[in-house]
Amino acid sequence: LSVEDEHQRRWADATWGVYAFYDYDGEPIYVGQTNERLRTRVRRHLTNQRTDAVAMRILDVFEVAEVEVYPLWELEGSPKNDASAKATLNALEYSVYLHAIRESRFKAILNEKIPPVSVPIPLPPALRYDLIDPVTRAERGHPDV
Fold it and tell me: Which 3 state secondary structure label does DSSP give 10?
């Protein structure tokens, strides 16, 4: 979560943004948004700390192998109650959700609910990376496991 972009900003330090989790086969399993910090939100999901997706058994942290983050740097400093910023965040979440479904070989995703329907927007630069090391991937990556 500490990888930097070309402007020396840590991708996961963005306050506003969208994230997508992928399974061991690279299939999307969950798309979410945050205005509290990407790093914080992703960690809460992966450590089972009060997230609806984990509590509702939508997201099994043992199935998550990769994460992709889409920071909205232009919204840094925006107050959490900023309606325009929230609309941009909703539009990005919906756009990433649609993109993930299009790219999925099953044309599906496991979100507990569809993100707020919005006019799709172009996706900003994103960073996708492994959350597990090669040894763990080899141990848990087989479909029987």
Answer: strand
| In the block, residue with structure tokens 């990769």 | 66
CB-side exposure of 43: number of CA atoms within 13 Å? 9
- Tokens linked to 130: 């492994």
Question: pLDDT for 34-58, tens place per residue?
Answer: 999 999 999 888 876 655 655 445 5
Cβ neighbours of residue 29 under 8 Å, at least 6 residues apart?
21, 22, 23, 59, 63, 64, 109, 110
**Helices assigned H by DSSP within 59-144:** 83-103, 134-140
3-state SS, one letter per residue, for 52-70: HHHHCCCCCHHHCCEEEEE
Q: What would you report as the CA-atom Rg of the chain, rounded to the nearest whole angstrom?
A: 15
For residue 124, CA distances in Å to 91, 96, 114 come to: 12, 10, 21
Residue 68: which of 15, 121, 113, 126 has the closest Cα?
Answer: 126
Q: Edge-to-edge strand order for the sheet containing 66-71?
A: 28-34, 17-22, 66-71, 127-130
pTM exceeds 0.85, yes or no: yes
